[in-house]
Amino acid sequence: MPAKPQVPGLLKGLGVTFRTMMRPAVTVQYPHVKETPAPRARGVIALKEENCTVCMLCARECPDWCIYIEGHNDLAPPRREGGKPRRSPKLDRFDIDFSLCMYCGICVEVCPFDALFWSPEFEYSEMDIGDLLHEKRRLGEWMTTVPEPPALEAGAEVKKGKK
Amino acid sequence: MIAALVAVDVTTYGWVTALKVGVVLALIPAGALILGYVFLMKMMSHMQSRLGPMEAGPHGVLQLVFDGIKFLQKEDIFPDRSDRRVFALAPLVVMLSTFLLYIVIPAGPRLVVEDLDTGIFFALAVSSLSVIGILMAGWSSANKFSLMGGLRAAGQLIAYELPLVLAVVGVVIQAGTLSLQGIVGAQAAFDMSFFGLFTIPSIGYFIPQFFGFIIFMIAVQAELTQTPFDMPVAESELVAGFMTEYTGFRFLFFFMGEFGTAFAFGALASTLFLGGWYIPFGFHDGLLGDLQGVIVLFTKIMIVSFFVFWVRFTYPRFREDQLQTFAWKWLIPLSLLNILATAVFKVVF
User: What is the pLDDT of residue A127?
Assistant: First the structure.
């Protein structure tokens, strides 16, 4: 069967490319022009150390095994006179290796004590891959860039004892 | 024409020839760079809603220059089982065809390297030289992709040479000359009057030869192996076709040959159908005529190339059998009809 020329469709195609050419390009010239990422963008994971109880849930759930946690229990005075001394978990080491991390956010989801947060910061590339391992202090510094959580819905109950 | 202006003694002849060779040698990379930058890099990018090169010079104008410098630094690799002499010679043959094309194209009343009486015949003849270079490249690379690409190129270029030539025959019949300067002159003298009501000053043959123009442009698209007809270098099937094994400056030669030929064919199309360096109400002789001729011809080349590359960036590739069907069953009969119609009109009016 001979090929049947489909002229209107061909012209339509030419029109598409021409109109695209006339529209401004979507490219953002990154180092010169910076896009503001969406407020909840998954840029980097921040750690709020005082909330962490060294429960290891995040490290265990991490599909890439990129979270390294070490900790120990300090003893705190008992709540009542004559009682057993309480455990007070202390975090010695909390590292996230962002060269392994796949930004799935499971650690943030799974944390029962709100110690991990997403920050939209993304400019932390390094010349040496080893420097992508962010230690406890650096993860804590990202906390300053974490946006405020969205406001509660109208009529929602505020949990007691939470700030 | 330039040679006729100066007294022909040996030294002057030598100098003039050297000047001509130099001008043509400079034109090939200049044309390739302009088309490559304006259309391949910038226009294609914007048609795909991106910016293209932006860093090398303002808006990336120097990108291709730096790419060229990079190619010159690359190692000159010969495949182990290649036919070394043929392999080395092939890009030069392709380049030679481009080089010879520029010789007959007039850019002004006096600006033509050699105004041959059979100018258009010469141009079409040398343009098919590149097939030999491409076949040489495909055969000598000792690579099945190269061989496939070379054979596809040969089949395609030969098939589309016919409608190309036949479309030109219409122009030649109407102009009554094979000389490109003569064709420009005939178009300049050609005014279209509508039953004596009003007269459009000459804007070339593309209105009376409209079908010839369309057929010519389609055939040019295929001759230049631009996208709907890019089977010889189909990257998703054949890596890069006959260019697969080429690196460094030999690859650069193929690249410059491709875009230099595109520039030359743009010039040929403008000369044959759009009036060449001539515009109505302009200067038609002397230095001003030459200067204006260069600008006018360049503008027309850019307009023609815009359409060539616009089509290139819009359409997907033909299948090999569709390509041959299109040439033999559609374009060639249509161009023969065009010749017949032109001849009838020529005799009647």
Answer: 92
The residue type found at A29 is Q
For residue A74, the cross-strand partners are: A88
Q: How does pLDDT run across A6-18, given as a tens digit for each residue?
A: 777 888 888 888 8
Shortest Cα distance, chain A CAs vs residue B262, angstroms: 20
The token pair that represents B146 in the structure block: 């190269």
What is the domain partition of chain B in residue ranges?
Answer: 2-348
Question: What is the Cα–Cα distance from B32 to B51, expressed in whole angstroms?
Answer: 20
Task: Inform me whether the C-beta atom of residue A82 falls under 8 Å from chain B C-beta atoms.
Answer: no
* 8 Å CB contact of B314 and A17: yes
Nearest CA among B205, B348, B192, B314 for reference residue B270: B205
Which chain B residue's Cα is nearest to A24?
Answer: B49
Confidence of residue A161 (pLDDT cuts 50, 70, 90): low
pLDDT-derived band at A4, boundaries 50, 70, 90: low
- Give the ipTM: 0.70
Tell me how far apart the alpha carbons of residues B125 and B100 are, in angstroms, rounded to a whole number. 10
- Give the A window 15-44 contacts with B, CB below 8 Å: 16-18, 20-21, 23, 25-27, 29
Q: Residue B202's closest CA among B212, B193, B190?
A: B190
Alpha carbon distance B225, B156 (integer Å): 9
String of b and e for A54-87 (b: at least 16 CB within 10 Å)?
bbebbbeebeeebbebebeeeeeeeeeeeeeeee
Question: Above 70 in pLDDT, residue A154?
Answer: yes
Tell me the chain B residues in contact with residue A10 when contact means C-beta distances shorter than 8 Å: 315
* Maximum alpha-carbon separation in chain A: 98
Which among A1, A7, A21, A26 is the top mutation candidate for probing chain B, defined by the most B β-carbons within 10 Å of its own β-carbon? A21
Q: What is the mean pLDDT of each run of 10 residues along chain B (349 residues)?
A: 52 80 84 86 87 84 87 86 87 89 84 82 88 89 86 88 89 86 81 64 75 89 84 78 84 87 90 82 76 87 90 85 87 90 82
Distance CA(B59)–CA(B23), nearest Å, equals: 28
| Distance between first and last Cα of chain B | 33
